[in-house]
Specification:
By secondary structure, the protein is of the alpha/beta class. It has a single domain, classed as Phosphoglycerate mutase-like (Rossmann fold, 3-Layer(aba) Sandwich). Helices cover 32% and strands 9% of the residues. It is built from twelve helices and seven strands. The strands form two sheets. The protein has a five-stranded mixed beta sheet. α1 packs across α9 and α7 packs across α8. The longest helix has 20 residues. The radius of gyration is 20 Å and the shape is globular. It starts with a helix and ends with a strand.
């Protein structure tokens, strides 16, 4: 195992440490054999610390492609806003047992009778072009980057976080961008996994039994053995209205498709989602993509309109919307959109019996920088 692998394993160990200790798991206390200590602002250790702390201010210093692939966004767009900021951390991963998971049989009986309609608005995971700048130069679709390995890991983590929200998610609606589709697939796998299977997989991560280089392969194996996609419990579909703001602030003009063909047909995009639960009969609230050079204010109004329309369209269902930095539009306080962390989410609520405007309690916004 090379030094990079050891350091990534250590970071995973730190991340899962608290959860592992709550489960009375044996956790390695000593350093791996022949481990080399890395200290200083320009070391690999410093850069890898960004895996679970997206949008840091670290800058690249001669990183190799292997190192870059595991980094979080090193250069978030700067802003002129200088007020004091407060970073709301994500909730720790919950222990999984039949007694406390919302996906136990008892919780499932609540189903549509829950007094509140809940809408989770989540940002996608870590995107490859933000970590590996040279990716766009050779990519066939440079405007539509996939997730990194760290982004996939964070998506799985986020799916576990959503299991303890206290309600069942009935429907997932996804932006047509690839990073959102991939995020949705992993989050849904975590939501639909068996309690025992997910517990074992997380235990192995906590005990450092899975190296990051093996993570994607082991995740596929875990999904095939422990995940059952039941269309009577959860459905997923594409929603054009949840897409990124199509303007130069979000997408570099030099990488946009010259023929105007941003995505494949919806039917082709649906093949990338978990099969068996794709709802192909649902029509998009927003029937087509916005025009290029969409202004940010127009994007914000579009998101609000689409999210409210989706809530009205499925009034008896709890929704998970995988999109971009959309949760910023619903904050009661101003939010620096550039600093909305990957896989962060906001929980919007309203009465299911007498629908009203959606509300976003500030305490429920995870991973945003709020201005005071």
């Amino acid at each position: 195992m090379n030094d990079l692998g050891r350091l990534i394993n250590r970071k995973i160990g730190v991340t899962w440490g608290r959860w592992a200790r709550t489960q009375n798991l044996s956790f390695p206390k000593s350093k791996p054999q022949n481990h080399r200590s890395c200290q200083g602002p320009n070391t690999t250790s410093t850069h890898l610390s960004a895996i679970f702390r997206p949008n840091t201010n670290l800058r690249s210093t001669n990183l190799t492609s292997e190192q870059t692939i595991f980094r979080a966004n090193p250069n978030p767009r700067s802003t002129n806003l200088t007020p004091r900021k407060h970073h709301l951390q994500s909730k720790p991963y919950p222990p999984i047992s039949p007694q406390n998971t919302p996906y136990s049989d008892k919780a499932l009986t609540l189903g549509h009778h829950h007094p509140l309609q809940n809408i989770i608005v989540m940002r996608h995971g870590d995107r490859l072009d933000a970590l590996k700048r040279s990716w766009k130069q050779t990519a066939q679709r440079p405007w539509d980057p996939p997730l990194t390995v760290a982004g996939t890991f964070n998506s799985l983590w986020s799916g576990g976080i959503l299991r303890k929200e206290g309600f069942q998610i009935h429907r997932v609606l996804v932006s047509p961008f690839l990073r959102c589709i991939q995020t949705a697939s992993v989050v849904i796998a975590a939501l639909c996994a068996s309690e025992e299977g997910l517990h074992v997989f997380m235990t192995k991560l906590g005990a450092l039994e899975i190296h990051p280089s093996e993570f994607m392969e082991r995740l596929a194996e875990f999904t095939s053995k422990n995940v059952v996609f039941d269309p009577t419990k959860i459905n997923v579909s594409i929603e054009y209205g949840l897409c990124e703001a199509l303007c130069g602030l979000s997408i570099k003009p030099e990488v946009i498709p010259k023929d105007g063909n941003w995505f494949a047909d919806v039917s082709e995009l649906e093949t990338l989602l978990p099969q068996g639960i794709v709802d192909r009969f649902v029509e998009c609230v927003y029937p087509k993509l916005p025009q290029w050079e969409e202004k940010q204010k127009v994007w914000c109004r579009r998101l609000k309109s689409v999210i409210r329309s989706l809530a009205d369209k499925f009034p008896n269902e709890n929704l998970l919307l995988i999109t971009h930095a959309a949760m910023a539009a619903f904050s009661k306080k101003p939010v620096i959109v550039d600093k909305v962390a990957y896989c962060s989410h906001a929980c919007l609520q309203r009465s299911a019996t007498s629908p009203s405007d959606l509300e976003a309690p500030n305490k429920e916004i995870s991973g945003c920088y709020l201005l005071h």
